[in-house]
Amino acid sequence: MKKPRVLIVEDESSIAELIAVNLRHNGFEPIWAEDGDAAQREIDACLPDLVLLDWMLPGQSGLQLARQWRKDARTKNLPILMLTARGDEPDKVAGLDAGADDYITKPFSTQEMLARIRAVLRRRAPEVVTERVEIGELALDTATHRVTWQGMPLKVGPTEFKLLGYLMQHAERVHSRAQLLDKVWGDHVYIEERTVDVHVKRLRESLGPAAPMVETVRGAGYRLTSQATV
């Protein structure tokens, strides 16, 4: 299994080395860049899975780099975790506004850093649906991108297809809107929770006679069930 590559952008070599050692011991592949130029060279050569970006850097600041990467189509969705010695609330907000997914204030523990990295990577990686799932007479095939009801094909949009795949893989369980955003969209930083309702409505319209299988659980979220009277 490929180790997640983490680019450490940090001008203090002692801190960078400490982070790198801890990452290596925990199944990551660290790469170090001491300033913005070096970081850009690494990113141009190979896109990492996540960037640990120090706020205070010589030359371009971490904030400027984050803004620059968010504007570029290739790095727009690159997970960024900001390292900052600034504990002030306005600075944290500025970091998130610049496009950071999360921030971590120095000094921090290894466990906290690893937990934050894993959380950001988890949010960024949508669940993969197994090739074929069947619930009752409803079937979904990711290889052919087809959905059928009683053997008849149904026309389902790409987002609705992903949503249905996730619900079918975890049938009978109730999922909150936030959970669905996390698992289906992969990163809900910029997406309203109400977006889920819109896609559920569209999914039901696409399912036609099988629509009752997607149940609304009042105050909790949604569930796909084979128990529905279809």
UniProtKB/TrEMBL annotation:
Pfam families linked: Response_reg (PF00072), Trans_reg_C (PF00486)
Subcellular location: Cytoplasm
Gene3D superfamilies: 3.40.50.2300, 6.10.250.690, Winged helix-like DNA-binding domain superfamily/Winged helix DNA-binding domain (1.10.10.10)
Residue intervals of the Response regulatory domain: 5-121
Residues the record lists as 4-aspartylphosphate modifications: 54
Entry keywords, A to Z: Activator, Cytoplasm, DNA-binding, Phosphate transport, Phosphoprotein, Transcription, Transcription regulation, Transport, Two-component regulatory system
NCBIfam families: PhoB
Entry protein name: Phosphate regulon transcriptional regulatory protein PhoB
Origin species: Variovorax soli
Lineage: Bacteria, Pseudomonadati, Pseudomonadota, Betaproteobacteria, Burkholderiales
